[in-house]
Amino acid sequence: MFDACRRSVEAVFGRQTSARGRPGGRGAGLQLDSVISPFILYGLIALGGVGVLLALPRERFSLALPGYIVGSAAGGGILLFLFFASQDPDPAAFAGPEVADAPLGVIPNPYFYAFALLGLAAAMRVITHPKPVYSALYFILTILATSGLFLILSAEFMAFALIIIYAGAILITYLFVIMLATQAPQEELVENQPEYDRLAREPVAATAAGFVLLAILSTMLGRGVPVLTMDESAFEGDQLLAQLPTRIERSLREEYALDEGVGIRPIERIAREITATGPDGPFLVDPMTRTVVVEVVNDAGDGARRTVAWPADLAITNPEGVGWELIKAHPGAIEIAGVILLMAMRGATILARKQIQLDEDAKRDMAMARSGIGGGGSRAGGSEEETD
Amino acid sequence: MDVFALSLAQADFPQPMHAITLYHYLLVSAVMFCLGLIGFVTRRNLIIMFLCTEMMFQAAGIAMIAFGRFYLDYTGQVFVIFVLTVAAAEAALALALVVLLFRRKESLDGTAWAVLKG
Q1: Which residues of A touch B114 (CB under 8 A)?
Q2: Fewer CB within 10 Å of terminal CB in chain A, N or C?
Q3: What is the tally of helices (H) and strands (E) in chain B?
Q4: Smallest CA–CA separation between A301 and chain B, in Å?
């Protein structure tokens, strides 16, 4: 199982198996393996497609339950595939040299698999549930799982912003609209749902297209990702801190305020001089050596300069990094985003205020359509008046 | 052995993603995107269709934040903020439109408006 998945990953990733120098001569079998084994992944993707297809709402009898089972099996299979892929004997090729030096090789992060499975299962329910309210609620679950993934990626600010904005604001709006714009169901039966919720449109073609796209995407990503290289020296956390002298000063104040030995009391002096940064100023930040030159103000008041190390735990936090990047690199985009939001607010207000008055024909058609006599669909839109 | 340590990774942000590679996140993102796409094409309820576009936004957000983590900079997260902005604007406008369309035809069926295709 391990070997099959590994070979599959290698084949998908287009790696040279022979160049890895793995013991145990496989010889002629290699070629065949590298041709066949990506089909483990493709087979799982096709299985997922069948599951989604079964689970989509359909007429008369519902195959939702077997669809969910098949779909979850496929999703779990894909995650297992990923798990075995990360059990590669040469983890450095996958995850960088740090992981290769880890004592047990690659340690999987169980939270990734939990959040990914939860998010994908909820996403499947969103697109297959016949009742819109449940779809919206499952979408909230998807958002929670996604923000869990963001947490693992150490994007804490975005994780909580996602929960607050998406789950808290946007999805509540959706729920309001669903409840406003749905005929009151007589009972809780699915048969009483309107037809457009009970039937999927072109389920076979759409599912096939979607999962073919997924197969192509997974192959391309698998070939592309190992080529990318990670450059840790590109991380500009300390350089970023050097541009935030108040932050360093605040941290220094906590670290050294009561330390007689360093002798930078009263620390307020630093705060006063902090504007005069630069090589000639009294406050010089060096991100390379993580030091800062402060003016020593002791009881004698000689004003000597001294190089002090930054506190060890001084690091840029995620909201600081995101905020600084936002202000520094994309100031115009913030303004544009504000204008977009204003326009959306104005547009929504105008649209929602529009009154629609139906004339007698349209009302009769609608009543007939509602009572199931039919003919509602053939009505042209020309017999309606509208006022603003 | 911190197998179960949720590496919130603020302390070790400038470290590579441990054990979970970029490919894992990108594959999850691709699966979620394709599910949203299938939902958008197959479902006929206008509200669900817009919900599916939001799901595709989510998938794009996962990919962007994973790339941002991989390259150890914040641009990916900043772009997710803009995606969130666009999603909020889209939700407001689209839902206002949906309410308007529902008042006119008493139906959320997307195919009821097929006449708009000209």
Answers
A1: none
A2: C
A3: 3, 0
A4: 38
Question: What are the pLDDT digits (tens) for A127-183?
Answer: 988 888 899 999 999 999 999 999 888 888 999 999 999 988 999 999 998 888 876
CA distance B63 to chain A (A): 10
Q: Is B72 in contact with A380 (Cβ distance < 8 A)?
A: no
* pLDDT tens per residue across span A32-57: 334 445 778 888 888 888 888 888 88
Q: Do residue B51 and residue A106 have CB atoms under 8 angstroms apart?
A: no
Show residues of chain A in contact with B112, CB under 8 Å. 196, 377
CB B36 within 8 A of CB A157: no
Nearest CA in chain B to A135: B48
Beta bridge mates, B19? none
Residues 6+ apart with CB under 8 A from A94: A85, A86, A88, A106, A226, B21, B23
Query: Which of A109, A318, A381 is the closest to B19 by Cβ?
Result: A109
CB A78 within 8 A of CB A41: yes
List own/partner pairs for A217-224 with CB under 8 A and 24 or more apart.
A217/B30, A217/B33, A217/B34, A218/A12, A218/A41, A218/A45, A218/B27, A218/B30, A219/A12, A219/A38, A221/B23, A221/B26, A221/B27, A221/B30, A222/A9, A222/A12, A222/A13, A222/A14, A222/B23, A223/A12, A223/A13, A223/A14
Kindly list the residues from chain B whose CB atom is less than 8 angstroms away from the CB atom of residue A228. 22, 70
Q: What is the pLDDT of residue B1?
A: 32
Model-wide pTM > 0.80: no
- Can you tell me the ipTM of this complex? 0.87
A121: Cβ–Cβ under 8 A, 6 or more apart, which residues?
A: A71, A72, A75
CA B107 – CA B17 distance, rounded (Å): 48
Range list of H helices, A38-95 = 38-55, 64-85, 91-95
Instruction: Using CB atoms, pick whichever of A86, A214, A354 lies closest to residue B21.
Output: A86
